[in-house]
Amino acid sequence: MNYLLILCTTVSNKYCAEKIARKLLNDKLAACVSIKEINSFYLWDEKIHNDSEYEVTIKSKPEKLNNLIKFLKIEIGYEIPQIIYKNFESERNYYQWAEKSMD
Q1: Residue 91 near residue 25, CB atoms below 8 Å
Q2: What pLDDT does residue 77 have?
Q3: Are strands 32-44 and 3-11 parallel, antiparallel or unpaired?
Q4: Ramachandran assignment for 28, one of left (phi > 0), alpha (psi -120 to 50 degrees), beta (any other)
Q5: How many CA atoms does the CB half-sphere of 78 hold within 13 Å?
Q6: Residue 38 pLDDT
Q7: Predicted local distance difference test score (pLDDT) of residue 1
Q8: Distance between CA 71 and CA 64 in Å, rounded?
Q9: For the chain, which domains are there?
């Protein structure tokens, strides 16, 4: 099977999102990183918060998960960073490109 890891996290600003994307690609921890501006509503300390954030979606190899989590916990300034992930089956050509990108 051609499985890729898709990991989603959020950061507070565009600079941080782009810095993370570049480091992940340079360190071969990701094949592709997508960034989009979002508006997040969430409960924190029993209050509803509404913040502008940047969602960072990382496409990687499943075996890189632990290294990605360690990296993100250092790079993201949140007390409890959002780190959500799942393995997805990928189309063969995209999978081969992603694998080659991280070698």
Answers
A1: no
A2: 87
A3: unpaired
A4: left
A5: 15
A6: 98
A7: 81
A8: 11
A9: 3-101 (3.30.70.120)
Average pLDDT of each block of 10 consecutive residues along the chain (103 residues)? 96 97 98 98 96 98 98 94 97 96 93
82 vs 85: CA distance, rounded Å: 10
Q: Report whether 59 contacts 98 (CB < 8 A).
A: yes
Compute the distance between CA of residue 10 and CA of residue 57 in angstroms, rounded to an integer: 9
Instruction: Output the 3-class SS for the chain.
Output: CCEEEEEEEEECCHHHHHHHHHHHHHCCCCCEEEEEEEEEEEEECCEEEEEEEEEEEEEECHHHHHHHHHHHHHHCCCCCCCCEEEEEECCHHHHHHHHHHCC
Alpha-carbon distance values, 75 to 61, 85, 97 (Å)? 20, 17, 26
